[in-house]
Prior knowledge:
By secondary structure, the chain is of the alpha+beta class.
Amino acid sequence: xxxxxxxxxxxxxxxxxxxxxxxxxxxxxxxxxxxxxxxxxxxxxxxxxxxxxxxxxxxxxxxxxxxxxxxxxxxxxxxxxxxxxxxxxxxxxxxxxxxxxxxxxxxxxxxxxxxxxxxxxxxxxxxxxxxxxxxxxxxxxxxxxxxxxxxxxxxxxxxxxxxxxxxxxxxxxxxxxxxxxxxxxxxxxxxxxxxxxxxxxxxxxxxxxxxxxxxxxxxxxxxxxxxxxxxxxxxxxxxxxxxxxxxxxxxxxxxxxxxxxx
Length: 262
Ligand SMILES: [Zn+2]
């Protein structure tokens, strides 16, 4: 089992201090930049958070869309409540959902996070993808695995072709949880590697690595091309919002499929 929990993929692209936000991009997904628009934003702007004026948040979302070249008129945002449900493209959906499955080009999708794990999936042969919000509850419900499963089962994605980018979230270095939470999260994966819970400190409480758990959920489906963007939201106050640090701002993961030939 040596190194079986290391991420063997190429190092992620260092964050870019664009105007008006920090932008993290995946090396894997950037290989397909002519076909998909993707990214994980950072400070200083907020893309959500109830203590900020709705107008400001809306303007910031538009700024991200324009910066990335996405069509803000079709922006689709799930109503996130730590579920394991998805919405499909920009179809009307009255359910609360925590991921968007994209099968049609031209629709930008965003999920907001501030410690929770953002995941982007893309299958280049089928030209479909998903953007997912997985906090500890979503992770315990295996939302990332379910989204990938749905791409495979209902939209003919092949596991060996699927690419996954796991974006900035609170790391195993900082995510202290209760024994109950650790156990619920652990139940979402078949094996329990030591590295998921290695950061025990004087508190005696578990420190969980949610990025690794999401990765193991994907690996259980035979998905091998997985990249983790190694940035802990709590350790990087200059770049990223962190709920655990007491901040109210939010960053987003975004994805849009481009129209072929455009
Ligand atoms: Zn940390």
